[in-house]
Amino acid sequence: MLLEVVDIAKSFGSVQALRGVSLALKPGSVHAVLGENGAGKSTLMKIISGVFPASSGTIRVEGQMVHWNRAEQARAAGVSTIFQEFILLPNLSVAENLFLGRELRTPLGLVDRQRQREESRRILARVGLDLDPDVLTGRLRVAEQQMVEIAKGVMRDARIFVFDEPTAALGDREAARLFDLIRQLRAEGKGILYISHRLPELFELCDEVTVLKDGQFAGHFAMQETTATELVTTMVGRTLDQLFPPHRTGGPGETVLELRDLRTTGFAGPVNLAIGRHEIVGLAGLEGQGQIGITRSIFEGHAPETGEILFEGLPLGHAGPAGGVAAGIGLIPEDRKAEGLFLPLSVARNIAVGLLSGKGLAQPASVPAEDIAAQIQRLRIRLRDAAQAISELSGGNQQKALLARWLVRGVKLLICEEPTRGVDIGAKSEIYAILRELADSGVPVLITSRELPELIGLCDRIVVVRDGATVGSFPGGTSTEEEIMAAAIGGQRA
Amino acid sequence: MTLRKILLTGTFLAGLASAPALAEVPELNSALSPVEGSPMVDLPASTKDSFVLGFSNISVVNTWRVQMVEELKYEASLHPEISEMIVADAGGDVNRQVSDIESLIARGVDAILVAPGSEVALNGALEKAYAAGIPTIIFSSNATPENYTVKLLADDAQFGRDGAKFLADVLGGKGNIISIRGISGNSIDNDRFRGVEEVLVDYPDIKVIDEGFGDWAYDKGKQVCESLLIAHPDVQGIWSSGGAMTQACAEVLEENGLPMIPMTGEANNGFLRIWKEKDLESVGPISPTWFGQQGVIAALRVLEGAPIARDNLVNPAPILKDQIDAFYRPDLNDSYWVGSTLPDEKLKELYGK
Amino acid sequence: MKLAGATTAVRLRRLSALPVFALIAVLAIVLGVASPHALSAQNLINILNQQVSLILVTVGQTIVVLTAGLDLSVGSVVSLTTAIASHGTPFAVPLAILAALAVGLVNAGGILRFGIHPILMTLSTMTAVQGLALLVRPIPGGTVPGWMKTYAGAEILGLPLPVICAAVVVFLAAVVVSRSRFGLHLMATGASAQSALLGGVNTGRIILLAYLLSSLFACLGGLNLAARLASGDPLVGQPFGIDSIAATALGGTQLSGGLGGVAGPVVGVLFLALLGNGLNLLNISTYYQMIIKGVLLILAVSAHRRNQPGL
User: Fold this and answer.
1) In the predicted model, is pLDDT for residue B19 greater than 90?
2) Which C-chain residues 230-249 have CB contacts (< 8 A) with chain B?
3) Do chains C and A touch (3 or more CB pairs under 8 A)?
4) Is residue B29 domain-shared with residue B122, that is, in the same domain?
5) Range of the domain at A83
6) Which of A249, B250, B325, C122 has its CA 20 to 30 A from that of C308?
């Protein structure tokens, strides 16, 4: 065994994050670690990569017992971790990042840039990356940064690679390239631990899977002998077809929002779209085809280049998000951490933000405890108490808090960009149910999503966007991924 | 580093211009007298017909210094043999004053006049000037290089002695006083207070029960005086290191309904006005601003080879209450320092109301 | 991304000091036209000699700023150093160095161990050390050892020894910051201490070293000043804290850390000095000078727009 984790437990204060978790990684294999957020995957990964020690239990690398307190020790023992938050330094060059902490030096003791550059080229070539080693990593695309991380592990001759949701920020082509690289590592006899929420890619890539639930070992399967249903059931105690609420059987209701011949900056357009009172409409399309331009035009109301937006029959005349909020529109942004949350503030404050807009600066910023408690309960946000910093919550619970922000205010239209990005499956199904409940109660929902199964499973109607234009509309539930993709790609590549 | 160039074209008054420069070597003010045992300057006369003088001033933070610099410039303008008078102002930074002096050495001026900002900090630069054969004239406040050409200093201790004697007399040799001092660590303030201590040795029943530093300024003086008087409302007298602080103290007493008590002042127009208006019991020691003028004269005497002692002190008698009218200038504003040698015209320009 | 052609790390770091180099060039031309004396070798040497202490202090400040910190206590360390060095005790100079290192240690300790924000931590030590300086030497004066006076007055080939020493120190510091492992780790720590730590940088040690160096450079600046003034002054260092930060920012070192170098801030010091010198030559009142300096500082600093990746 390359890596054996036996009976690991970890507690933070009174919180027991892990209990009796065991896992064995064979050389030349890709081992998935699956579990809901909060199931303890990240904690386990951090113990394996030495960020903090376990409270009890043992870790053996090639049979040798190890005790790590710092990431450096794990790295020295051959564990390379590609963290979810990249640890490349944006202000250093690729070569400097690769050699950080173990710089090559000239006889004078200075950094030997020339030799580092040459070495870097060699290593980058090994992971199939054609990059100038002098370029700033901050200028690289996310996928390239990941590759550099991997190159760093390869360079250090790591035997164990830990990937923490590596495809969360990647496009399909980049993901495919990453998978190739991971397969190459496997072929070289490395052991790979792979965390992801995306079941399909696990089947594509992994050899075996360990499932965690509530900080405990919940199951271990060979990938070829298991099914998605079985994994989901093990993980959340629920089957996959229960993930989505049933589609609406009645009509869409009267039109609440209508976009007529809308053209957004930088795209050809036009967009023509109408959303009924009881509908969930999804915007599909390839990456960056103007979906976000559409949602932001509605919410922020910046004058579109041409065309108009009618909301409840009247043209939207506001400029800026405050106007959108005042008109009764709520937006849950794609980049939750940067645009949605106030990370250091409490959950209660983050929810109460929804009540602030439209208030005078001198008015008190009320935090109505009862209303907030009601939303926390309704959305089943899992937390210690409402005063807890929102940064401590899992992605799913953060997303629910953002939903609560608009529910506590009461909106007439909800826009949700990537409603379940970085959200575990259990929370996903809860969020879907809430969105459906909203639509049923007369608050239409407009979502954008990169995940076609999500659009098909959740939405009443899927509108495909290509180069800022609406090019097709498909009913939810019955459409196939293929026909939506075909519309999204259009004539160009098909 | 200020190198404020003042190109003086000279005042070519018909009669003066034609007179030979050598015959016109000006005399020092008679109030300046050589210190006992001071050697005479024995530098050879300069062979040049015209001179470039450099003046390194520590700062022009208060009107005393402004007036002093004006007197220097005015005197320089009277002498056609001075072809250029360079004035460098260090803005209160001794580090900069060192550079200013070095810069004057580098420019090869014929004499360096210095109003030092520190007793010790400039010594290196002044030694360098002296070693370079440039006469160095230290005036108004002290610096202590081993070698220098001429020093013109007020006996600042005398300022303190005058004030302390006055207080001792008026209090009948008995009572508690507070002292409002200038800038902490300043040599002038230290010397002035040393004079006070010298006198009070003979009056054991007069005690300085508290002191504060008012930086010679009106606002800070007022704060310091207020807090001292609140702490000790029953003091019988105030010794002040001068500046605008005495006026501030008088106002503090008035505003707090305390009786006017004897306090020492300084010979400046604002204080004389208050003295007169409030009928204070006071004395006005003089700290002459004509140091600037005398500095130029001393430089000329050295350069022309006229006799001059190395160390000179000035001990002007203080202004007494019955002499106020002889010094007070109601036509000038409060900032004027009495006893100036500047012509009326210049004074009106500076201090006109 | 305005610097499209300059995406390599080394070039970016060099570019960061560009605006101040451009500014000083413009200033030199203007001064050269306005006053023939301004650019005379002697005047320039004089300015250099006068600025040696601030240059040394600024080098230390830059090192701290690169770690995304700030050291307000340098001015008090300068004062304390002159106070101790002028005290006439046999081991005055080693004592001054030890005292400075102690200040650096306390700064780093507070920041690392107790998580105090650098501004608050160094503000506190600034105040405390100022008090200490006044205790050691309540009023200016004293004298320094003879060798210090000799050092301050010595010249080699017409260049003052302090200027030569400062040039050597600045050169070494520049090489260390831009080319050494320590320098690289400074940048890494400044950009993201968390990432640097995960990347194998001992960020605690880097931050400790940075504050120790900052205090040490402040001490060197103080020793130079004491030597030059042949005396001590408990308040002489007061302007150094703000001045060194201004010069650092002016020199293109981002106060948010991770980008910059030593050369820029040193030129920043010289720019401010030359500006003051020039404004004096042009006979502009001190009050206007302050306004002009403030405005120029804003303009210069805003020239480094924060469009660098991740900074």
Assistant:
1) no
2) 230-231, 233, 236
3) yes
4) yes
5) 3-237
6) C122
A345 — contact with chain C (CB < 8 Å)?
A: no
Low-confidence ranges of chain C (pLDDT < 70): 1-7, 283, 285-286, 303-311
Residue B322 in domain: no
The answer to whether residue B6 scores a pLDDT higher than 50 is: no
Do A399 and A458 sit in the same domain of this protein?
A: yes
Residue C311 lies in a domain: no
Q: Which of chain C's residues have a Cβ under 8 Å away from the Cβ of B91?
A: 286
Q: How far is CA C104 from the centre of its chain?
A: 15
Q: What is the pLDDT of residue A257?
A: 92
Phi, psi of A69 (to 5 degrees): -115, -20
| B351: in domain | no
Question: Are A99 and A220 within one domain?
Answer: yes
Mean model confidence pLDDT for chain A: 86
Query: Chain B contact for C88, CB < 8 A?
Result: no
Where residue C186 sits, what CATH number does that domain have? 1.10.3470
Residue contact B121–C229, C-beta within 8 A: yes
Q: Check pLDDT > 80 for residue A237.
A: no
Q: Residue C57 is encoded by which pair of tokens?
A: 């202090």
Q: Tell whether A149 and A201 lie within a shared domain.
A: yes
Contact C233 B107 (CB under 8 A): no
ipTM for the predicted complex comes to: 0.82
pLDDT digits (tens, 9 = 90+) for A288-318: 788 888 998 898 876 667 888 888 888 887 7
Q: Is C201 on the interface with A (CB under 8 A)?
A: yes
For residues A411 and A23, the answer to whether their CB atoms sit within 8 Å is: no
| Model pLDDT for residues B247-296, shown as the tens digit of each residue | 889 989 988 888 889 999 988 888 899 898 888 889 998 888 899 999 99
Contact A134 C8 (CB under 8 A): yes
Domain span at B247: 156-278
Whether A233 and A261 map to the same domain: the answer is no
Residue A246 lies in a domain: no
CA distance C230 to chain B (A): 5
What CATH number is associated with residue B41?
A: 3.40.50.2300
Q: Distance between CA C153 and CA A16 in Å, rounded?
A: 69
Q: Which residues in chain C are closer than 8 Å to B121, comparing Cβ atoms? A: 140, 228-231, 233
